[in-house]
Design brief:
The protein has 331 residues and is of the alpha/beta class. It is 32% helix and 24% strand. It has two domains: 172 residues, Peroxisomal Thiolase, Chain A, domain 1 (3-Layer(aba) Sandwich), CATH 3.40.47; 147 residues, Peroxisomal Thiolase, Chain A, domain 1 (3-Layer(aba) Sandwich). The chain contains eleven helices and 13 strands. It has a five-stranded mixed beta sheet with strand order 1-7-6-4-5, sandwiched between helices. The protein has a four-stranded mixed beta sheet with strand order 8-13-12-11, with helices on both faces. Strands 2-3 form a two-stranded antiparallel ribbon. β4, α4 and β5 form a beta-alpha-beta unit. The longest helix is centred in the last third of the chain and has 22 residues. Bound molecules: oxa(dethia)-CoA. The site of oxa(dethia)-CoA (UT7) has 19 residues, from α2, α6 and α8.
Length: 331
């Protein structure tokens, strides 16, 4: 029997209406449009405003857009995975709530957290459920309300992050399309360089922690940058070599949108021209788990059946990896 491969067969997205521009940030912290644009490539980011709206709000919207586009009955979905670093709350998984809200009443759900690599690792996990032959429809959502963990008086972090969500449907392919190979890595030395210290069991959120602003993202940008440039390019090269691919074989690079310079460095290492590099960081900033599905949603019209895509990410932890993937449909 032919090996079952796991293809993406539909995409949906949601971005909040509120736009936080570089010009607005200039009025909030000591920064300027030129610095942000040249150092990161970001021009604006979206922020989810309003009481009672968490990550699930955006995840539900993205999933509903996918269901609508695909004309899919949510009762057919068997598993909902929400990749996120900002779940609605501890203990009660966001994915379970999302599944119920979208009418996926026959699905089970769990969250997957690996900072900016959450979605890439989620692709690996979703694909395994499909490849096992036991599951036929797995919904993977990448969603983060980054603004909930950002100190908007800290210029080192508030210029980078934004909110958003993207959803993809994994189904079995009978033509060998979808996930071809993966190279996933992690290294715990990274946790001191990018973290929200007071957020879990090690350092619970106390009044003292809040006074010290330890409930917000801390990042040693320079160290994370150096590791991201080296490691993201390294795994992309490895996955090409392992699959005997050259730059001519690759149609697209879909890399986590943390910094334009990191993405360009990865593209240079695999000799990929800029027209093949998916880029939307200028519009959304770093949306953590949502960057990759938002790329797929924004480029969906340009993707052709059989296109070879190299996915790559690097994030807190450290966590990083690359996936070689064949696109399964024309829009
Ligand atoms: O997605 C998860 C993984 N995260 C990443 O991949 C992010 C990796 N890091 C980065 O993208 C970059 O390190 C940043 C964009 C965060 C910072 O860029 P950088 O080129 O590494 O700048 P830097 O931190 O070395 O700072 C350079 C200068 C410093 O001033 P001095 O010491 O040279 O006088 C900073 O104080 O820029 C200053 N600076 C700013 N100036 C204007 C730092 N933040 C700002 C700012 N506006 N927002």
């Amino acid at each position: 029997m032919a090996k079952i491969t796991a293809a993406i067969t539909a995409v949906g997205k949601y971005i909040p209406d509120y736009i936080l521009t570089n010009a607005m940030l200039e009025k909030m912290v000591d920064t300027n449009d030129e610095w942000i644009t040249t150092r990161t490539g970001i021009k604006e980011r979206r922020i989810l405003k309003g009481e009672g709206k968490g990550t699930s709000y955006m995840a539900i919207k993205a999933a509903k857009e996918l269901l609508e586009k695909k004309k899919l009955d949510p009762k057919e979905i068997e598993l909902v995975i929400v990749a996120t670093a900002t779940p609605d709350m501890q203990a009660a998984a966001t994915s379970v709530y999302v599944a119920t809200q979208i009418g996926a009443v026959n699905a089970f759900g769990f969250d997957l957290e690996a900072a900016c690599s959450s979605f890439l690792y989620g692709m690996s996990v979703a694909a395994k459920y499909i490849e096992s032959g036991r599951y036929k429809k797995v919904l993977l959502i990448g969603a983060d309300k980054c603004s909930s963990m950002i100190d908007y008086t800290d210029r080192a972090t508030c210029i980078i992050f934004g909110d958003g969500a993207g959803a993809v449907l994994f189904e079995p392919s009978e033509e060998g399309l979808g996930l071809q190979d993966e190279y996933l890595k992690s290294d715990g030395v990274g946790r001191e360089y990018l973290q929200v210290k007071a957020s879990g069991s090690l350092y619970p959120v106390t009044k003292e922690a809040i006074d010290k602003k330890e409930n917000f993202v801390y990042q040693d940008g320079k160290t994370v940058f150096k590791n991201a440039v080296f490691n993201m390019a390294d795994v992309a090269v490895k996955i090409l070599e392992r699959n005997n691919l050259t730059n001519d074989d690759i149609n697209w690079l879909a890399a986590h949108q943390a910094n334009k310079r990191i993405i360009e460095a990865t593209a240079r290492r695999i000799n990929l021209e800029s027209s093949k590099v998916m880029m939307n960081i200028q519009k959304y900033g770093n949306t953590t788990s949502a960057t990759i599905p938002l790329l797929l949603a924004d480029y969906e019209q340009q993707l052709k059946k059989g296109d070879n895509i190299i996915f790559a990410s690097f994030g807190g932890g450290f966590t990083w990896g690359s996936i070689y993937f064949k696109w399964a449909y024309n829009s």
